[in-house]
Amino acid sequence: MTDQHPLTDELCEELPGASCITILTAPGDPDPYLCPQYIADDMRAAADWQLRQDAEWWKTFLNRTEMIPPPVVNLIIEDFKQEMRPTTTQENN
């Protein structure tokens, strides 16, 4: 079994501008392009990075209030990450 990112290739392809992107080059040079799989991988990496930034901000904010014990803050942050980035388990055949 593997965990599958919730931002699937299909979801990435539905977003505007997620099809192949041509990179313009000098006249006479072939124009390379980025295929949708690379775009989807980059989108997933960006989403994961943003989640880490958000979780760190919330953790710092909640710890500064000093109203919630740090172990409880850690549980809140783990729940936050799970709710914001649920994974589906996929069977490997």
Concise account of the structure shown:
Helices cover 55% and strands 11% of the residues.
Summed over residues and divided by their number, the pLDDT gives a mean of 77
Structural class per helix/strand content?
A: mainly alpha
| Sheet with most strands: strand arrangement | 1-4
Please summarize the sheet with the most strands.
Answer: 2 strands, antiparallel
Distance between the termini: 9 Å
Percent helix, as a range, is 40-55%
Which regions are unreliable across 5 or more consecutive residues at pLDDT < 50?
none
Descriptive keywords:
mainly alpha, two-stranded antiparallel sheet, elongated
Task: Characterize the structure shown.
- The strands form two sheets. Strands 1-4 form a two-stranded antiparallel ribbon.
- It has three helices and four strands, in the order E-H-E-E-H-H-E.
- It has one domain.
- With 93 residues, it is mainly alpha-helical.
- It is 55% helix and 11% strand.
What is the fold's blueprint, element by element?
Blueprint: E1 2-4, H1 9-14, E2 21-22, E3 33-34, H2 36-65, H3 70-84, E4 88-90
Antiparallel strand pairs: 1-4, 2-3
